[in-house]
């Protein structure tokens, strides 16, 4: 018993030092001259150990020791909780809800020309992509200076067009009609195939400014482009026949995601309107914790879709949805994970265009290791035959296991 008390003495004395002064009111503290020889000997031991003189033993010492034990326990609990959070964070980003970027600044970023020289070998395709990027720079400038107002014209569906829609579309038509690389082109605003240069090599399909319903909010919008070779053309081809696709995202920065010879790359528009490679060989993880559920009206009719949404919520997935296809899917490239779902129902039919939206994004996501579903058969959207320029489709796209979950829960596949 005496040995146990002696071994606890340093802990008790440390408790006195830390907790004694604030708790001295609990008992009177006698002066050094009033202490017994035993207490003076204890104080001397403490002094020899390098511990300054504090209150007397008794209640204060007991409270100090107890407080130390509590502090040690709390610290251990915090370490255990921190370790658990770190493990989860390593799997799903820096935060359970925010998923902050893990990109680390580089000393040097490759230029567009440097990357294209190694990763886009076809000179004709390279020249055409450079023309597309020039048009995207002009669209960026137009979005910075033009107000979002209703234009006098309407598109072929009778929808009122916005001024910025018309500007973006005209810039892309200027490219298609003047380029020696483009033989045919079609815009989502006017979904018909227009012959441009008979000596051209490629067929272009574009959505000039996806996100018209949110651009007045100053939210991110984008341009979507699919490119087919004239050997396949568009009608009768599939998304898998594309020779490349790109999506430009106009937000606080302008970035473009494109498929090159060996994967998906991100380029950022920098000083002097020069493009730099900001991400290379992007990969979309098999699992994810981010979901973007489109066409939620369908969940009122399709119980299986409602069940999928409930699964996301009860499993504490992070909701990241703006109502714009471009930002809602492009987050999969920057976060490295995610799933976008857009099923259909009788009252909420398919709205996404196969040639202008689903196929270009499908090529990007699948080349980055993700997966797609046509929302009906469960097969890849890239295997759907394009039978009409304005053909519509349902879509699930993103992390492979979550697209599989969509096929199982919603389609029963």
The string of secondary-structure elements, in order, is HHHHHEEHEEEEEEEEEHEHEEHEEEH
Average of per-residue pLDDT values = 85
Count of helical segments?
10
Count of beta strands:
17
Class derived from helix and strand content: alpha+beta
Binned, the helix content reads 25-40%
Shape: globular
- The low-confidence parts are 2-36
Describe the protein in words.
It is globular and about 80 Å long. The strands form four sheets. Strands 4-3-5-6-7-8-9-10 form an eight-stranded mixed beta sheet, with helices on both faces. By secondary structure, the protein is of the alpha+beta class. The protein starts with a helix and ends with a helix. α5 (123-145) runs antiparallel to α6 (163-178). It is built from ten helices and 17 strands.
Describe what is shown at a glance.
The chain has 413 residues and is of the alpha+beta class.
Key structural traits:
413 residues; alpha+beta; eight-stranded mixed beta sheet; five-stranded mixed beta sheet; 10 helices; disordered N terminus
Topology:
Elements: H1 2-19, H2 37-48, H3 59-92, H4 112-119, H5 123-145, E1 150-154, E2 160-162, H6 163-178, E3 182-187, E4 190-195, E5 202-210, E6 221-229, E7 242-250, E8 254-260, E9 263-269, E10 275-279, E11 290-293, H7 303-314, E12 318-319, H8 325-335, E13 339-342, E14 352-353, H9 354-367, E15 371-373, E16 392-393, E17 395-398, H10 400-409
Parallel strand pairs: 3-5, 11-12, 11-13
Antiparallel strand pairs: 1-2, 3-4, 5-6, 6-7, 7-8, 8-9, 9-10, 13-17, 14-16, 15-17
């Amino acid at each position: 018993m005496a040995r146990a008390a002696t071994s606890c003495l340093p802990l008790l004395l440390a408790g006195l030092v830390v907790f004694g002064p604030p708790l001295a009111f609990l008992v009177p503290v006698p002066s050094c001259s009033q202490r017994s020889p035993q207490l003076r000997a204890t104080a001397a031991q403490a002094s020899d150990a390098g511990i300054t003189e504090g209150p007397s033993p008794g209640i204060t010492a007991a409270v100090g020791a107890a407080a130390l034990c509590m502090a040690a326990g709390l610290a251990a609990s915090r370490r255990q909780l921190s370790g658990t959070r770190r493990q989860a964070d390593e799997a799903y980003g820096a935060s359970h809800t925010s998923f902050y970027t893990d990109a680390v600044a580089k000393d040097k970023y490759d230029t567009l020309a440097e990357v294209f020289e190694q990763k886009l070998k076809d000179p004709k395709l390279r020249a055409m992509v450079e023309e597309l990027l020039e048009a995207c720079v002009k669209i960026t400038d137009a979005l910075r200076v033009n107000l979002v107002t209703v234009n006098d014209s309407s598109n072929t569906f009778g929808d009122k067009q916005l001024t910025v829609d018309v500007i973006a579309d005209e810039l892309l038509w200027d490219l298609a009609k003047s380029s020696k690389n483009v033989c045919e082109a079609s815009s989502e605003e006017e979904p018909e195939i227009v012959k441009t240069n008979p000596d051209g090599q490629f067929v272009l399909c574009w959505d000039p400014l996806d996100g018209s319903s949110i651009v007045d909010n100053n939210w991110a919008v984008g341009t979507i482009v699919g490119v087919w070779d004239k050997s396949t053309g568009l009608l009768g081809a599939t998304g898998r026949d594309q020779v490349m696709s790109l999506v430009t995202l106009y937000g606080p920065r302008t970035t473009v995601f494109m498929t090159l010879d060996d994967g998906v790359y991100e380029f950022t528009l920098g000083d002097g309107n020069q493009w730099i490679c900001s991400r290379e060989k992007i990969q979309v993880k098999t699992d994810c914790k981010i979901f973007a559920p489109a066409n939620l009206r369908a969940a009122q009719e399709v119980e299986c879709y409602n069940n999928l949404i409930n699964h996301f919520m009860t499993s504490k997935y992070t909701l990241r949805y703006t109502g714009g296809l471009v930002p809602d899917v492009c987050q999969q490239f920057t976060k490295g994970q995610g799933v976008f779902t857009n099923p259909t129902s009788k009252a909420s039919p398919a709205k996404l265009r196969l040639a202008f939206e689903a196929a270009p994004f499908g090529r990007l996501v699948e080349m980055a290791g993700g997966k797609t579903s046509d929302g009906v058969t469960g097969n890849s959207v890239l295997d759907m035959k394009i039978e009409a320029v304005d053909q519509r489709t349902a879509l699930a796209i993103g992390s492979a296991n979550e697209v599989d979950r969509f096929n199982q829960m919603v389609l029963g596949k």
